Amino acid sequence: MINRSESTNFSNLSSDLIHNFKQLFKFIDIDNDNSINKEDIQKLIRIINLNEKVDVNEMFPAGSDSITYPEFLSIMGKLFQGFPNDQQLREALTNFADETNQMDLNKINAEQLFSYLQKTDFYIKEQDTFLKQWKHFILSESGTTYFLGESFLKTFE
After folding, report:
1. In contact, 110 and 146? CB cutoff 8 Å
2. Which ranges carry the EF-hand domain (predicted)?
3. Model pTM?
4. Which pLDDT tens digit goes with each residue over 85-121?
């Protein structure tokens, strides 16, 4: 749960990422009242058909039913604190790239990548689930399933 007295923590976010968070905030603010309230979150959960049990109350400060954009941005800043930057992600993905051309980050063996992610306590435990949930970054070609690293990195631009 967040605490309203906590200072804003978004200085480590790029201007592009802040812009993307603004767009996300507007998307979640279904009733367009410039705040995200519990009803907005509940509607969003229904829209995206989130199957897991979500405690909406944990998303808001004690005694509040809504958060403003600066509060939302502060939450995102905390979540991204310590998150690797583009270059660090690129270097990490390079370790999984096809040995013949390590600069082609769209030739990352998805099976090997998932095997490594399992060792890091990744939230997805089954490879089939990983492939389905990350299908926008998956390509099957000549019997090999690849993770499209460049496409993944573009989501952070």
Report:
1. yes
2. 16-51
3. 0.52
4. 778 888 888 888 876 666 789 889 899 999 988 888 7
